[in-house]
Amino acid sequence: MLVDDDLDDTSLFEEVLQQVDPAVVFASAANGHEALAALREGTTRPDVIFLDLNMPRMDGRQCLAALKEDDTLKQIPVIMYTTSSQPKDVEQAMQKGAVSFITKPTSLKELQEILEAIAGNVHLDLHAALKTLRQTVPACVIC
Amino acid sequence: MILIVDDKQENLYSLKALLRLNLYEVDTATSGEEALKRILRNEYELIILDVQMPGMDGYEVAETITGYSRSKDIPIIFLSAVNIDKRFVTKGYASGGVDYITKPFDADILLLKVKTFTRLYRQTKELNDIKETLEQKVEERTKALVQANKELELSNAELQQYAFIASHDLQEPLRKIITFSRLVIERFLGGDPEALQYMNKVISSSERMRSLINDLLSYSHLAEPPRFNICNLNQLVQETMADLEVAIKEKEAVLHISHLPSIEAIPDQMRQLFQNLVSNALKFAKKDTPPVIKIWSELIDQRSLTAGISGKGAWCRIYISDNGIGFNEMYLDKIFHMFQRLHGKDEYHGTGIGLTIVKKIIQKHNGLISAESREGQGATFMLVLPLKQTAILETETQGL
After folding, report:
1. How far is A87 from chain B (nearest CA, A)?
2. CA dihedral A31, A35, A37, A39 (to 10 degrees)
3. Of A54, A86, A108, the CB nearest to B186
4. Which domains occur in chain B, in start order?
């Protein structure tokens, strides 16, 4: 699942994801409220959530906090996926329980590498996948 | 105006005549009670007070007068024909009199005393007025300063917030420009070298703007309140060098890092400081010579760029030297100013903010920075930093 208010980013993300693994089921939400509503209704149960920081109504920080406070949702790994690369944002997100902080890449090739590393490994070993990601993609700030 | 207090009309009359003759304004009272009423209503420069009166006597009147804040500074001369014994004189002074004259008195001497005491009273009053005005002015100015300070703090905070939001929000569209330009290149520009060249220009300009925004963002972060921690500079510099690994390898640079002290500092800012200085040394290397960068330090006992080494000093002086292209020292002030560049953008990349950030970090750590260089002969940056921030704050407050 991608939670992002930017429709360009969402459609590029989906496009690359389908190339990487056509079997993946993709869901998106335009802000924290929408994401939480969909997750609580049970219309979607993602293996991993990519969460943007800067969104209207409920931003990524609030959404992350709400996810981690919800007993039925806190198991789902959350990867921050945002334009920011500020140490303060990274530190804050990691403290609040995100598993990684990825700065949105500026090329499809990088995005593809990120999604390849993660898509195949969500069930196996997400942390190991994120670790190897750091060596290949400079966009991955901390894993 | 002078007030004469006496229960005997004939005494009042003669004294009043004497003073009027000498151009003094005179008022009279025939009892202590009446005198007090008059003092409450009028302003007197001197009171001549009889000691023995029915009702309140002179001492009681004097004590009451000196008890009022309004009248406490009016000089009182006692005048007595009966109580001339030393103990009465002493009592007169104790009750607030400035002089004690016994009858019969010499008119000339009395006039001289009147003249002296009224003059003294006027001068004291003038001084008090000046003092009051000054105090009032000081208070007004202090108020104005406090207000101005408040406004300044507010606008400063707003400015920081503004810089942060502006920088943050500028990132988004820029990233999209880059992403979609790359997409266009990948999908549509396969066989057109000219179009490819133009698109690459779009991307490199956008990348440059991105680093500008990132640097501005870092700079605006520097204004936050500091959190000092003990920082092992050896470890911190090693970590920073690991981040610069790619650039170091690319330039085939050689680094010599001698033992550095542990100091009380803001770790993130220290990391940024060394990163910026070493990046600069790498960036401004000579085209044909691999960079040799040395970092070393010494202890000194004062905040000085030139003080001699002192083994137990409370300050450290850190040097970062390179063998690069250097600069003319006439530009020394300029290099620490924002957006000042000594070279064309095509010659050396950079945003012109790096050294400004370094300087700001040094300021936040109560330190000093300078550099020595000659064109073509490398550059050496010198930083002076306190080992402990708390000690510095204490000595500074003592100095005040």
Report:
1. 9
2. 180
3. A108
4. 2-105 (3.40.50.2300), 136-224 (1.10.287), 225-399 (3.30.565.10)
